[in-house]
Each structure stands twice: as structure tokens, then as C-alpha cells.
Design goal:
CATH topology: Inosine-uridine Nucleoside N-ribohydrolase, Chain A
Number of strands: 11
Oligomer: single chain
Number of domains: 1
Largest sheet: 9 strands, mixed
Radius of gyration: 18 Å
Order of helices and strands: EHEHEHHEHEHHEHEHHEHEEEH
């Protein structure tokens, strides 16, 4: 089976790390590059978390990590450190000799898609700043992307950073709107509400089973996710949320998607009350759709994919301090 070439655009913390692991270890994936964007936690910490994830998979130094936009297009950066802590569960490693790619993430996106037009699939699991800037720099960039899978927004549902807004769209709403208007030929959106909350949230007993698998990956997973599940449960979300890894999984394993539909998706950029809110207009309104929105996935099958991955034995390239 031919592997699917992907680029992961990420603000690496918690489930972003799980997504990178899936990109490295799923037999269907061919991870070509990781591009970093300002989002969940401090930028340098995000970059360190990406290298740490490559390390635990035994792949340190094998996939280029490109540093991208450190601020949203127009706004000050907003973090989710209250949710994720440092995004690494306090883990660390010796970074001597570990280098980021010299090429900026935006330049890498433009170059890689020019070298392989119509072949690369982008998994965007942070704010969409890098993709918006790439689009502004080269208006032909969207046409060179085979598919763009976005974790963002809610399908006319509740947010997770404000009552109305999901974090990724909230942090850089202007970037999100630029991307949604850019004409990417195949845009797929995995929203927070209802899909993540219904089908990609693992209650504590399920979560504990993953953490108890006994592999380095499972121990790493627990350290990445403990702070977030504690936070989620404290605000009424019943378990560990995994929208980012689902965003990649639905591309690699399309049979996971049980329901989806075409929508016209727009993001609020002007109202301070509803900043980052996504409106998803279905066919009733007669608007030209710009995305396919995932509405329901096979939660048990998705859990099985993560369980199989975390059961794999890997040998970290370098020791990881803090991981039992």
C-alpha cells in the first residue's frame, strides 16, 4: 500500500504530540516535515516538544522541524498553558546537536508543494497562521496542496476557549478566514463540537488503559496528556480529548468517518464577543461550500488505532528525563 505523504503544521502540546507519533508510526503515513506555528504553549517549548516526540519514537533528527510564525497575523498571541502546562508533562532531554531546519516553515510549505504539486496533504492542528502567510506570499500555493485537514472550530456549537470559539480559530481568526477563502481544492474540518466531544474523548477508564500499555510510547502519552485530562474533567469534559490525532487519522483511515457534509465555513474576525466563532452553513442557505465538515466518526475504531500505536515498542534515541 502506498503511503500518504503528509506535512503536520502544529503547536506541539498534548494531542499534537500524539498526532506526530501517528504520522511517524502509522503504516499509512509518510511524514515529510513538521512546521511549527504559535499556539498552545510558548513557542520554543513547542519546538522542544516536537523534537522530544521524534525522540521517543526513535526518529530524532529524521524529520525536519521548521520554525514558523511566532505570532498571529494581526493579534497578540494567546496561549492554552492553563490547559496543557508546558505541553510536555515536564519531560526533557539533552538537546545538544539537535537542530531545527534552517528554512522558515512558510518557505518550506511553498517549496515542498512546488516540488510535488498535487501530492502533499497538510494536517493543520494549530492556528492557521503559517498557511495564511503562505497563501498571501504565493496565491498558487493552495492549488498545489492535495488536501488540507484542519482541526478547528465548532459546528455551530460551543467553544473551548470562549463560549463560542474553539482555540485554534480564536488565536488567529484572520488567518483562518484567509485559508477558508483561499480555494484549497480539498478542505476537511474536524470540529471541537460535536465530533471531538462525542467521538474523540476517552473517559478516564479508557484513558487509563492506554496509559497502562507499558511501552515508552504509553508512558510518554500519559505524561503528555495527564494535565489536559485533569483540566478537561474540571470543566465538565468527561475524558481526554484527541481532536488533533483524529484529524490525521481520518485522512489515513477514511473509513473512520461515518458522516460528513459540505458546508460554507466562515470565522468571525470583528466582534470581540464572538471572536473566532465558526459559522458552518449547510445546503439550506445556498452558499457555495468551501469545506467538508466531519460530523461523526467511529469512536471505537479510532481508539483502536491509538491503542495499536501506543502498544508498539520503540527505543528513544536519547534518554528522556522524568519518564519512568
Amino acid at each position: 500500500m502506498a503511503r500518504i505523504p503528509i506535512i503536520i503544521d502544529t503547536d506541539t502540546a498534548q494531542d499534537d504530540c500524539v498526532t506526530i507519533l501517528l504520522g511517524l508510526l502509522d503504516p499509512a503515513a509518510d511524514l515529510r516535515a513538521i512546521t511549527m506555528v504559535a499556539g498552545n504553549v510558548g513557542f520554543d517549548q513547542q519546538v522542544a516538544n516536537a523534537h522530544l516526540t521524534l525522540n521517543v519514537a526513535g526518529r530524532l533528527g529524521e524529520v525536519p522541524v521548521h520554525v514558523g510564525c511566532r505570532q498571529p497575523v494581526l493579534r497578540e498571541w494567546s496561549s492554552a498553558e492553563d490547559v496543557h502546562g508546558d505541553g510536555s508533562g515536564g519531560l526533557a532531554m539533552d538537546v545538544t546537536g539537535v537542530h531545527n531546519a534552517s528554512e522558515h516553515a512558510v518557505d518550506a510549505l511553498l517549496r515542498l508543494t512546488a516540488e510535488a504539486p498535487g501530492e502533499l496533504n497538510i494536517i493543520a492542528i494549530g492556528p492557521l497562521t503559517n498557511l495564511a502567510v503562505a497563501t498571501v506570499m504565493d496565491r498558487t500555493f493552495p492549488s498545489r496542496v492535495k488536501s488540507l485537514s484542519i482541526m478547528g472550530g465548532s459546528n455551530n456549537g460551543r467553544g473551548n476557549i470562549t463560549p463560542s470559539a474553539e482555540f485554534n480559530f480564536y488565536v488567529d481568526p484572520e488567518a483562518a478566514q484567509i485559508v477558508l477563502d483561499a480555494g484549497f481544492p480539498d478542505v476537511r474540518i474536524v470540529p471541537w463540537d460535536p465530533v471531538t466531544l462525542n467521538d474523540a474523548t476517552f473517559a478516564r477508564p479508557q484513558y487509563d488503559r492506554l496509559c497502562a500499555l507499558g511501552t515508552p510510547l504509553a508512558r510518554f502519552f500519559q505524561r503528555m496528556c495527564d494535565a489536559t485530562i485533569d483540566y478537561d474533567e474540571s470543566v465538565g469534559v468527561d475524558g481526554s480529548t484527541h481532536p488533533d490525532s483524529l484529524t490525521l487519522a481520518q485522512l489515513l483511515h477514511p473509513e473512520l468517518v461515518l458522516a460528513s457534509a459540505a458546508y460554507r465555513v466562515d470565522v468571525e474576525t470583528t466582534s470581540p464577543l464572538t471572536r473566532g466563532m465558526s459559522t458552518m452553513a449547510w445546503d439550506k442557505f445556498g452558499l457555495a461550500p468551501n469545506a467538508t465538515v466531519v460530523e461523526k466518526v467511529d469512536a471505537a475504531a479510532f481508539y483502536g488505532i491509538l491503542e495499536a500505536m501506543l502498544s508498539r515498542q520503540t527505543t528513544p534515541v536519547r534518554p528522556i528525563s522524568g519518564m519512568n
